[in-house]
From TrEMBL:
The keyword Membrane does not apply. This is Extracellular solute-binding protein family 3. InterPro entries: Solute-binding_3/MltF_N. Residues 48-274 form the Solute-binding protein family 3/N-terminal domain. Pfam families: SBP_bac_3. Gene3D superfamilies: Periplasmic binding protein-like II (3.40.190.10). It comes from the Bacteria. It comes from Kyrpidia tusciae (strain DSM 2912 / NBRC 15312 / T2) (Bacillus tusciae). Keywords: Signal. The lineage of its organism: Bacteria, Bacillati, Bacillota, Bacilli, Bacillales. SUPFAM superfamilies: Periplasmic binding protein-like II (SSF53850).
Amino acid sequence: MKKFFKTALFVALAAAILAGCGSGATTTGSQAEGNKASTLEAIKQRGTLIVGSSNDVPFAYIDKDTKQLKGIDAEIIQEIAKRLGIPKVEMKEIKFENLLVELNNKNIDMVTDGMYIKPEREKIAQFTHPWYKEGEGLVVRKDSTISGLEDLKDKVVGGQKGTAFLEYIQKMQQQGKVKEVKVFGSQAELLLAINTDKIDAGITDSATAAYTIQHDPTLNVKLVSPYTPVFQGTVAAAVRKEDTDLLEAVNKELDNLKREGFVLKVLQKYGLGQDNMVE
């Protein structure tokens, strides 16, 4: 009898242990599933969406006077966050070339900084639906005789590290269309170098340059006009590959903002317009 009870007890314990193991595996699977789709919920609970930007106007920057987050990308993401029930958007200033690195290091939730969708970037991040499009501009001193790209063969030309424009200038140098290329960490440094005669010209984002030149009377530089952009980039926000919940929620609200005319109004506020809209 004791032997029977001992055997029964052993069987019961073994069954309990196996059941427990099976249950634990199921729970772990569910938790992993939950963690994978928890990014948006975590942001909502935190009450703050953290975005990364290199602080270049007019995309996403901190206004020197008001200390508030402003810019094209900033206003769009703030409205999206509001509609998603996220009361605050906070910007972390990060060098442009490090934005996707910091995104994948989970130091920020999104990149919103006039970033072009490019195949090499899509390998390490997901991009939202397109926000808008815009191209490069050629910046020179006001007294410069440079009137187009054809005048750069014997000139020193600058570009911002990590941008599509720098890659384009470097290709021009390889083709013998530019004498020398100088690399700068920010557009502010690039414009200052042109202003102080350290370089002859710079190829940079036209929207950013136009806004900066308009608001900084100390800059004795101009955008060459007329000028036809060699290429136009499509701008979007970037999220981590696994953050599909955040991506889908942002895309849904972005599409609504386009239909309602909100995106166009923001573009017009910063000197762009209908030509910069994308479906």
